[in-house]
Design brief:
Blueprint lengths: L3 H19 L4 H8 L3 H9 L6 H10 L5 H10 L21 H12 L2 E6 L10 H11 L5 H14 L10 E7 H5 L5 H15 L4 E6 L13 E5 L8 E5 L4 E4 L2 H17 L3 H14 L1
Parallel strand pairs: 1-2, 2-3
Antiparallel strand pairs: 1-4, 4-5, 5-6
Protein name: Transcriptional regulator
Organism: Streptomyces lomondensis
C-alpha cells in the first residue's frame, strides 16, 4: 500500500519499462536515443523520481508508440494537459486540497471507468450542492464559510467527468444506509434522492442498492473505489479512504480481490431497474 503520487510514478515507470522492452531496447540504448544517462531511465522506470511530460514524450517517440490514447494517458499521468487543452483544474486549489485528494481527482479525471461501494454517503460524483455542503461540513470540523464554499465547488467540478466525451463509466453499489441517513435535513435529502433517480437513468451510470435485507456482505469492511483505464489494465488501482489520508492498492492480487468483491456485491444487490424503484419508493416515503 502506498500513497497516490508514489503509486502513479511507479505505474508510469512500469508502463514505460514495458514499452521499452517491447521496442527491443535496453535501458542503456534507450538513454542514448534520447541523450540521457542510463541512470535517469532507471530512476524513471522504478518510480524513484518524477518525470516531466516532455521526457515521457521523448521516450514514447523513441519507443515508436503510436497509440494516441495510451500516449495521452501516460502524458497526463506525468502532469500534462489533456487533448482538449484542459490543464489540471484542481491545481488552482493547491492551498486547499491535501495531496491525496488532488491525486484522487487526477486519477478520476483520466479513468475510463470507476466502480465504487458506498456504505455511508452518496458518491461525490452524484451529490447535489446542498448535500455536498452538509457532508463536507460534518466531515471537516471548524471550516470557515469560504473554505467550505471552495470544497463544495471542487466536489461539483469533479462531476464534469460524467459529462465528458467520452464520459466516465460509473458503477456504484449503495448500501441502503446511504438512502436512509438523513443528511442536511428532509428537504436536502429529498432533493438528493431525486438526483440519484436522475443519475440512475444516465447510460454511463449503473446504480444498484444493497438493501438491509441482504444481511451481512463482503462490503461491511468499508467503502472502496476501483479506477480502470481503457488503454492499459496495468494502471488500474484500488483506493481506500481513511479519516486523514487515502491508501492506494496496486498489486494484481489486490485488484483481483476487490474486483471479485465488487462483482459479488452486484450479484447480491438489487438490479439497476429494481434499485431505481427502490430509491423512488424511499423518496416517496421520506
Amino acid at each position: 500500500m502506498q500513497h497516490g503520487p508514489a503509486v502513479r510514478r511507479r505505474k508510469l515507470g512500469a508502463e514505460l519499462r514495458a514499452l521499452r522492452t517491447s521496442a527491443g531496447l535496453t535501458s542503456g540504448e534507450a538513454a542514448r536515443l534520447v541523450g540521457w544517462h542510463q541512470s535517469k531511465v532507471s530512476r524513471i522506470e522504478t518510480g524513484t523520481s518524477g518525470v516531466k511530460p516532455a521526457d515521457v514524450r521523448l521516450l514514447l517517440d523513441a519507443y515508436g508508440v503510436a497509440d494516441s490514447q495510451l500516449r495521452e494517458l501516460l502524458m497526463v499521468l506525468a502532469g500534462s494537459e489533456d487533448s482538449g487543452g484542459r490543464h489540471h483544474w484542481w491545481h488552482a486549489y493547491r492551498g486547499v486540497l491535501p495531496p491525496t485528494y488532488r491525486d484522487f481527482i487526477s486519477l478520476e479525471s483520466q479513468a475510463s471507468a470507476m466502480r465504487t461501494l458506498e456504505t455511508t454517503v452518496v458518491p461525490g460524483l452524484l451529490q447535489t450542492p446542498e448535500y455536498a455542503r452538509a457532508v463536507t461540513k460534518a466531515a471537516v470540523e471548524g471550516l470557515s464559510e469560504d473554505r467550505l464554499d471552495t470544497l463544495v465547488e471542487v466536489r461539483l467540478a469533479r462531476q464534469d467527468v460524467l459529462r465528458a466525451e467520452p464520459p466516465l463509466e460509473l458503477s456504484a453499489v449503495l448500501d441502503e444506509a446511504v438512502l436512509r441517513r438523513e443528511v442536511g435535513g428532509p428537504g436536502v435529502m429529498a432533493r438528493q434522492l431525486e438526483r440519484l433517480i436522475e443519475a440512475a437513468r444516465l447510460p454511463q451510470v449503473r446504480l444498484q442498492v444493497l438493501p438491509f435485507a441482504a444481511g451481512a456482505h463482503i462490503g461491511v469492511t468499508g467503502p472502496f473505489v476501483i479506477f480502470s483505464f481503457s488503454s492499459t489494465s496495468d494502471l488500474d488501482v484500488v483506493v481506500l479512504d481513511h479519516l486523514t489520508s487515502s491508501l492506494y492498492l496496486e498489486r494484481k492480487e489486490d485488484l483481483q480481490a476487490y474486483t471479485e468483491a465488487f462483482s459479488a456485491l452486484q450479484i447480491h444487490a438489487l438490479s439497476p431497474e429494481d434499485s431505481l424503484d427502490y430509491i423512488a419508493g424511499t423518496a416517496a416515503g421520506a
